[in-house]
Amino acid sequence: GQNIDQPTEMTATEGAIVQINCTYQTSGFNGLFWYQQHAGEAPTFLSYNVLDGLEEKGRFSSFLSRSKGYSYLLLKELQMKDSASYLCAVRDSYSNYQLIWGAGTKLIIKP
Amino acid sequence: DTGVSQDPRHKITKRGQNVTFRCDPISEHNRLYWYRQTLGQGPEFLTYFQNEAQLEKSRLLSDRFSAERPKGSFSTLEIQRTEQGDSAMYLCASSLVRENIQYFGAGTRLSVL
After folding, report:
1. Are the Cβ atoms of B91 and A42 closer than 8 angstroms?
2. Closest-CA residue in chain B for A43?
3. What angle do CA A82, B6, A109 make, to 5 degrees?
4. How distant is the Cα of B106 from the closest Cα of chain A, in angstroms?
5. Which of A15-19, A83-87, B61-65 has the lowest mean pLDDT?
6. Would you put residue B92 in left (φ > 0), alpha (ψ -120 to 50) or beta?
């Protein structure tokens, strides 16, 4: 079956680093996406991993291990505006390459 | 590039009424997706189009839901005989066939009373 797990909520301090984990089980893995979603707004694309390893983009990095069915999103130098939900989604070739979404991790940044 | 736009942003309706939402994708994008999202959940796939062809529809989608993309540009999603359980955010996204990234609109929030 298909399953994506993320922590429901995390809290971190402004200026610190936080790692949001995502584990997945899919039949035909074809890439993993991270999106950011502020309350009441559209999800916005952050990163895409299809090969193992770390992809860095400014303050945000995303890591993938296909053998472990595991990814994380790393946010550095946290800012108050980073308070949002972070959604992990997996593209699944067994589901016609549609995205299978996790429920999202709500990140709360405290001063 | 003005992004994906959705109209209306909010819709309040009474149970049993029909509602229609519109999505205008990014102009050169040939794929268009509809999702439904409830509080604390990720987006749930409803259907998608490549140009004007509806290529897939979720098995979970009731036959009260129908979507069209008549000229391969904008799309409409209609819900007939709305029920309280239809209350959700309806998101539209678009992408290029050759690219994996989906770009989302701000959504239409539906409240069924």
Report:
1. yes
2. B104
3. 10
4. 4
5. B61-65
6. beta
